[in-house]
Amino acid sequence: MNSTISSGFLSNIDGSFQPSADNNFTNIEPIYTSATGPACLYTAVRYGKRYVLKSLKPDFALTPAYHTALRKEFEIGIQLGHTHICQTIGWEDVEGVGQSIVLEYIDGDTLQTLLERRQLTTTLARSIFRQMADALDYMHSKQIVHRDIKPSNIMITHNGQQVKIIDFSLSDSDTFNVLKCPAGTTGYIAPEQLQRGATTSSAADVYSTGMVMKDMVAVTHDSGMLAAARVCTRLHPDERPQRLTDVQLPSVYYRRWLTLLHTAALLALALCVGALASRCGSPQPASSTEQSSGDGNTVVSHL
Predict the structure, then answer these.
(1) What percent of the chain has pLDDT over 90?
(2) Which H or E run contains 98?
(3) Number of structural domains the chain divides into
(4) Is residue 2 part of a domain?
(5) What's the pLDDT score for residue 293?
(6) Which of 32, 100, 186, 187 could anchor a disulfide with 55, C-beta 3.0 to 4.6 Å?
(7) Tell me, what CATH number does 112's domain have?
(8) What pLDDT, in 10s, does the model give residues 219-273?
(9) Helical spans, DSSP H, in the chain
């Protein structure tokens, strides 16, 4: 039997796969460093697969509060397993990086990028909303609130245009007793979260999603989505939908049909008004009789 190994994989006698003993990450490269915050992101490779490592910048790494926040982000993320949520894989001490959350690598763009490039169609925007709604309802069913829904935290994959919600650094859950304070991003944070004594609520994510929908409407001009966004961003939390999957977007074709009917009605009204104005403004012919004069000429007598 030829014992020469002709491939890069090792197998046991029974043919099962035997991974290399060296399971360290390689090709570690920085991809993002927060300008003001504590986080930094790297891409790294293990067994030929790419991952993202989220860790703390050196200036923050030894501060207990930031380490607690990073660990909380991991413990929340590891509970979630959903197609439209970035997968949290593990927690490791990576050489040269430090304590890190190991995350799924997503090949795509943020929704913020698509909005800036105006590369958003009505069909894609509606698909993004439906996928977001499904993912957030799943999170809320586990008593987890994201608290920082905004276009830059929504990834859209290049392959299949699938939504992936990212960044759980501000997320909270009923099971945690640490870092209980209002959180969010200006322009997307629910107004009640700015009040003293605010508590974590899924209604805050509903509001933030409504604001994201308004961003998409600014590009697509989808009146149906705008109507839904207004419902999601009502001032009082109790007036917002309890579940995002309950929010209905009127059909695009239905909205177009209503627009055509509205236009036709306005045109018909304009024609009626024009006809009425024409009749009221025309001089009425005078009533007259004709009489014969003695010289054979006709005399017109106006009555």
Answers:
(1) 66
(2) strand 98-104
(3) 2
(4) no
(5) 45
(6) 100
(7) 1.10.510.10
(8) 999 999 999 999 999 999 999 999 999 999 987 655 555 566 667 777 878 787 7
(9) 58-61, 64-77, 111-117, 122-141, 202-220, 223-232, 252-281
**How are beta strands 10-11 and 17-18 bridged, if at all?**
antiparallel
Is the pLDDT score of 292 beyond 50? no
What are the DSSP calls for 3-16, one per residue?
Answer: ----SS-EE-TTS-
Distance CA 190, CA 234 (A): 10
Q: How far, in Å, CA of 88 to CA of 74, rounded?
A: 7
Report pLDDT digits (tens) over 167-177: 999 999 887 75
Q: Tokens at residue 8, please?
A: 């890069």
CB count in 10 Å sphere of residue 234: 15
Tokens standing for 25? 């990450």
Type of residue numbered 261: L
Name the one residue in this structure whose structure tokens are 């699938």.
Answer: 162
The shares of helix, strand and coil residues in the chain, as percent rounded to the nearest 5, are: 40, 20, 40
What tens digit of pLDDT does each residue of 83-117 get? Answer: 999 999 999 999 999 999 999 999 999 999 999 99
Are 68 and 132 part of one and the same domain? Answer: no
The single-letter code of the amino acid at 302 is H
Alpha-carbon distance of 179 to 145, in angstroms, equals: 13
Looking up tokens 């090709």 gives 27
Same domain, 135 and 39: no
DSSP letters spanning 32-71: EE-SSSSEEEEEEEETTEEEEEEEE-HHHHT-HHHHHHHH
Amino acid at residue number 96: G
Length reported for the chain:
303
Give the pLDDT of residue 270: 74
| C-alpha span between 47 and 137 (Å, rounded) | 34
